[in-house]
Write a structure and sequence with these properties.
Blueprint (H helix, E strand, L loop, with lengths): L4 H29 L3 H11 L5 H26 L7 H15 L7 H7 L7 H36 L5 H22 L3 H9 L8 H4 L6 H28 L6 H17 L8 H12 L6 H27 L2 H14 L1
Length: 335
Amino acid sequence: MKLNKNIKLFINYFLGPLLFIWLSWSIYRQIQQQPGLEQAWQRMKASMNGPMLWNLLLVFILMIANWSIEAVKWQLSVKQIQKVSFARSLKAVLSGVSFSVTTPNRVGEYLGRVLYMDEGNRLKTISLTIVGSISQLIITIFMGGIGLIILRPIIEEQQIISVVWMKVILYGVWGVFLVLTLFYFRLSWIIKWVDRLPGSKRFAYLVRALEDFNATILLKLMSLSLLRFFVFIIQYYLLFVLFDVNVSGWQAFWTVSVSFLVMAIIPTIAIAELAQRGKVTIAIVGLYSSNELGMTFATAGIWFINLILPAIVGSLLIVRINKIFTSNNYEDSTS
């Protein structure tokens, strides 16, 4: 399907620059309002002249690894309907980040990614992308659930949560994990349910591609999600060391795992979630360390490096949105 001349002009000379300006202003305004970020940045710059330089460099390298793994995940997910190169997949992921930081629960991520798909495949891509997100959520719930079991004695000892409520939370977490995992490996059920809905023929094609997900692909997606999870944990530990949060690797692993679980449950807008992340991190990592300022700085550092920097790159890619559509139209005309 070719775009008419007026739509092309709108996309080429108005939509791309407008999106870039909006995203850039949103990111800048929120950065200015985040508590502890300036002090954390000053500490990170100071570390460049000391032995902690390697910690900081590793965190940046792991950020690149993190989004590269996500690009491979997305590439694997959408190959059912369209083969996408790694470079294009990475651009799509970063563009998705730029949209996600200003939308509740990062739903804008899907909009940024579908721009890189050919005409006719964009809406179908949403359901495939959701599968990759579910695989990450399953890993988060699983690791967080184990973390809750391990931290349960100290949580109850310090009376952060009562024994009764701890049991309720554990049963709830593992119940959600089992249900979500069952649906993940039985995606065909979703298609059957959609087919039974009145008037479903109009949009059934949007989920039809889910039939092509076999157990091998789903396990690969889950393995990549687990690898991303480990990358996140290592980043946190490196910044804990940088900001003098005295916790062992074992303590950092399970406390951060539980923190991820809590953040997955709390509805939020990604760009405004730093304050919430800081509170959650202090409450849970604080079981083993009293350096609340260091935890706040580490959380701010992760937020800036893992989310804001990729969002800035993604917003720059949005400026080139006209080339994306031009390329897609060319591919459509030659297919």
